[in-house]
Amino acid sequence: MSNDSPSSDRPVIVAPDADLRALFNLPDNAVIRFDTSGVTGLESEPNQPILALNPRFNNMTASSDHLRHSLVQDRYFYTLPAELWSRVKESVGSDRFDPELVSLEESLGRMCGDHSSSVGFWRGRSLTCFNLRSPPSLTISAVDVPEWKVNQAAIDLALRNSRRPLENIARVTRAYLGWLLTNRTFLDEHDSLLRDWQSDVALWGTSSLGQPVPPHEVPDNETARSEWSSFNAAFEPFFHRWRLRGLAGPYLPIPLQPSMAGRVPQSTLQQLARAGGVFCIPDTFPIPSRDELRSLLVNALHNTDSTDHLTEWMQAIASDNTARHALDPFERYWELQHYWRILHHRHVAAFRRQVTHVKEALAEFMGTSERRLHVDLIELRKRLGTDWLERSIGTGWEPFG
Fold it and tell me: Can you tell me the distance from the alpha carbon of 223 to that of 15, in angstroms, rounded to the nearest whole number?
């Protein structure tokens, strides 16, 4: 325990969900244990670790101090990955930031890890979105599995081959999200819905919308079934129109994706049929040739619904599109617009005359050049208008500020 810790000669009363590591200035890997001496029934289990305080076991709920912060309490709060925040703070200078905001960014951003699954909080509880960042690639060392009797090159090749189909789906998914979030029509419809239903968004959030969740299982509102049904029904046409499965949070749509396991959940059949098609090839039939299967799929996907609003995207993914990297910019836009909004909304004062440094830090984090990122920001401005960063400011569901 550090010298900054409260005195150990008197008891300290803390909230049940208090961040004890921050309170006592302990390292992240510190093990916190119960002192069970004199506690009836626990005499045989002295000094047991509090597993709920271990990041591997906690429930991803923000600490009590942060729960009361105006940017977190009863609202959405999107976090920055620790690596990105560290680069930005180092490039701009830590003395330019509000110390309270620094503590908030670092503590909550660290709880969300690499942001491949958790991307922020809603009313203090972890918010899940699997498409913002790619998770680290699985690695297996031949030394750890001698019973396989294969060399490292063979293992690496097998892992690459197994990842390739899923990586391609993930790439197209992120590019589609980048296209959606730079499409004014989509954003106008998205914002209009959230404005019209903002009291329900504040009560329930959006993560259960469009999902096969019975109304009585909606968190924090087990009795208001008719209200939930109306709320959910209002978003169904929007999800169908834009080929979405749901909305993890404001500006975090969940696109429909191919089902790869050979089985389609019955609860999603209607949604899949309306948005594209449901395909079945019985195991008693031979798999068609590549060209024949492509033709079957293309013909089956033509439906009577108007897709004029999707024209630009359909052209980008068309099989005869010779621009091999047509999706790359949209994939970058997806991450760029998300993090740029957070940085602009929460730290605009710190970035005065420092924007170049912010661009450099973000470019390094995203694995691109500062010049490329600068051009991408210009393109975002062209696609979305000069006021694109002001969307959602002043609303009850604004997640970036």
Answer: 29
